[in-house]
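Quick review question:
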């Protein structure tokens, strides 16, 4: 069975849904307000567990009712939470706006996520055994914790998948330890573009492009476009997390990067078909059925 360790954030998402996003300086009336479970790390862990992987989450929640609720949701989804620490203060909160087309805008208040330390990360990763383990991280936790995850993964001979969201320039020493980076178009431009990332030593870059699928870049090989599976979009929140999680599960399964990217594109598409970041996370048979139903959309060279 595949094993994934997620080092990342846990948030409660306060979601407002309306016809359209406010412009800068504008006030709009939204139609519905909901609290759901989120945080890129928690979403990735939940998505990988739903795909049947053994999933360890390394994260921090607050000592408030939201932290208790967040833990309960993760445990119910099969995520192993031994390395989820409880820190004094509030759990992270994300303010999420979703428009009629399912697009989102997100502002995060990190709260307890800022309490995730390198020591917690190293101790959690050292406790896991196995050879095909894949470690996943995002940028919603302190950089030192991510660096500890990357260097421990490298020392253990494990692949390290980094979802560089929210985007920020990254140190060269960290980029060298990244097996696969999964930016979207905006994050890619903040990080300096494909050539700079590959030159910095990133093993592979998989750029997610929503309805346009994803593009796979590896040094020395021609870039490849992987088409998306068609989807009836309700809410794109968390689709990138489902994509990154499925990619990690695919790699831990022993799939090639391209095959894992096809698998991930289908999982990401399905994740847009429900409300909230974890509203429509697919299990393996659903991903397989989506790929079968939409035909074998072959990757094409760019
Ligand atoms: O990727 C979606 C997630 O980003 C949301 O769940 C929100 O919590 C923010 O972390």
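Suggested answer, residue by residue:
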């Amino acid at each position: 069975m595949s094993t994934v360790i997620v080092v990342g954030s846990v948030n409660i998402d306060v979601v407002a849904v309306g016809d359209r996003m406010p412009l800068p300086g504008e006030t709009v009336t939204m139609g519905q307000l909901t609290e759901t479970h989120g945080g890129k790390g928690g979403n990735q862990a939940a998505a990988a567990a739903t795909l049947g992987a053994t999933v360890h989450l390394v994260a921090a929640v607050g000592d408030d009712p939201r932290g208790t609720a967040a833990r309960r949701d993760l445990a119910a989804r099969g995520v192993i939470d031994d390395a989820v620490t409880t820190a004094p203060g509030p759990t992270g909160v994300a303010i999420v706006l979703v428009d009629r087309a399912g697009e989102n805008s997100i502002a995060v208040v990190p709260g307890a996520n800022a309490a995730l330390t390198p020591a917690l990360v190293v101790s959690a990763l050292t406790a896991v055994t196995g050879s095909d383990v894949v470690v996943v991280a995002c940028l919603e936790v302190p950089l030192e914790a991510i660096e500890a995850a990357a260097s421990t993964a490298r020392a253990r001979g494990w692949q390290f998948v980094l979802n560089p969201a929210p985007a920020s320039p990254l140190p060269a020493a960290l980029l060298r330890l990244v097996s696969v980076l999964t930016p979207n178009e905006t994050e890619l431009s903040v990080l300096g573009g494909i050539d700079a990332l590959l030159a910095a030593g990133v093993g592979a870059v998989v750029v997610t492009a929503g309805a346009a699928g994803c593009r796979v870049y590896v040094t020395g090989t021609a870039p490849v476009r992987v088409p998306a599976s068609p989807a009836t979009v309700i809410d794109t929140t968390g689709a990138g997390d489902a994509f990154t999680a499925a990619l990690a599960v695919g790699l831990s399964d022993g799939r090639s990067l391209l095959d894992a990217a096809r698998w991930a594109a289908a999982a990401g598409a399905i994740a847009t078909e429900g409300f909230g970041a974890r509203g429509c996370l697919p299990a393996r048979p659903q991903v397989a059925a989506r790929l079968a139903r939409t035909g074998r959309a072959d990757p094409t060279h760019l």
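Why it works: Residues 62 and 87 are 5 Å apart (CA to CA). The mean pLDDT is 95.
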